[in-house]
Each structure stands twice: as C-alpha cells, then as structure tokens.
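Quick one:
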Amino acid sequence: MEELQQIGLAEGRNLRLDHDDLDALLAGRRTDMMRFEDLVLDDMKIKRLDAKLSLERKDDGTVGLLLHPIRSEPVASEYLTRDEAEALKKGDGVNILKKVYDGEGHEREVLVEFDRDTNEFIVSDTENIEAPEEINGVPLTPEQKERFRKGKEVKVDEDGTTIQYAAQEKQGIRSDKLHLVASILIDGGISYLMYKAMHALWGQKHDPNKDNNVGKNYQEAFQNYKQQEGRATMRPVAEEKGEEVDQGYSR
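Output:
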C-alpha cells in the first residue's frame, strides 16, 4: 500500500485502480499500461513514466510492487536461445515452452512471452497458471487444462470457443470471441468471471458471426454469473447489440 501511495494509486487505504487492473494484480498478472507523472522514486525525480504494474512475492514472504516501464532494449531471457528470443520479438510465435532446472536439478516448465508494449520478456511458471474449470458452461477436460497451462490453444468443442493463456494480457487470456463466461476454483468454490472486449488469438481477428453465436450453455453460465453478481437486469453481451456496457469483470 505504501508503494501504491508513493506513485499516486492509493490515498490512505483507498485504491485508485481500475477493477480489471486490480484483479490482474491479485491474480499475479500485469495491469494495462499506465501513465505516472511527477514521481519521486529513490530520490530520483521522474517527470513522466509509462509503465505496467505487477506484484512480486519476496523471499521474506512480503509482497512488493514492480513497475515495468518501456525498455529501450529488451533483456534476453536466460531460458531462450538467441534464435528463440528473436522469433518472439519478431512475432513469429506467441510463446515458447521450456523445461528448466534449478540448482538442485529439479525440473520445471516455464512459458516465455514477449510483451511488445514494454519491450520485455515475460516468464510464467506453468505450475502457477490457473486453468478455467469451465468456458461458457462447458467443463474443460484435464487434457485441455494442461494444454492451457502450457500456452497452447484450447477449443471447447460443444461451444466452438477457442482460448489461450497470455501473461501479457491483464485478463490472462485471449479468445476467438470478444466475450465469454469462465468459471474458476477459488478457495474450493466455483466463481464466475465475465470477460469482455477480449483480444483475438495470436495472428487472428475476431469473426462477428462467432461473437453472436452463443448457445444454451453460454446462457446458463451467464445466468450463474448474473446471480453471483446480483445483477438481475443485466443482459448477455450478445443481446446488447452495440449498447454501452460495463467493461469490467468480477470475482
């Protein structure tokens, strides 16, 4: 909180953060790009700074705030070869999955992406990537959840929706549809998330015909979300026909 106060995003215990950005922080992801002005950090005065934010768990268990400004030159990830790093920077792929080993020889998998907004590599431990339980009311199989954690595209056959994990997105996900309802496990219970204005899958564009093609499962999932949020008058996105809508999502 003190660090948030220092950069003008908190006053006392009150946060000045967009709901989506706060959710992204609490889920271990990055916010959207923000502009900060007249900062004083470590006795250094900064007139203007564009950066994303994330949280970091320190060795002593406390949580610290990280700023991700736009780098003039990206620092190559230690997990990638030169060719792999260049491929991500050029946009030849969305991510690269790597097996790495710690000092004691224990194996783990990491997913490496390149954030073009900040000009830096993002490394995600696949064990910490949370896969949805359901997409638009359709349960994901264990195999589909594993594909999601490994950064691969996952198609929900009954619904036709395709999703993919993306650490560089504050929602942590891309889709071939502009909106969807996902459910995740939180503290042993199911919670529903409403995603809107989503970015398309890597190298693709949204198909309006797909966006309007929602079935019974989506409608049921939307009703569960609406009941959870207590929004009795809220209508599914596909029925709003261009009207102004709330762009947030809740847990």
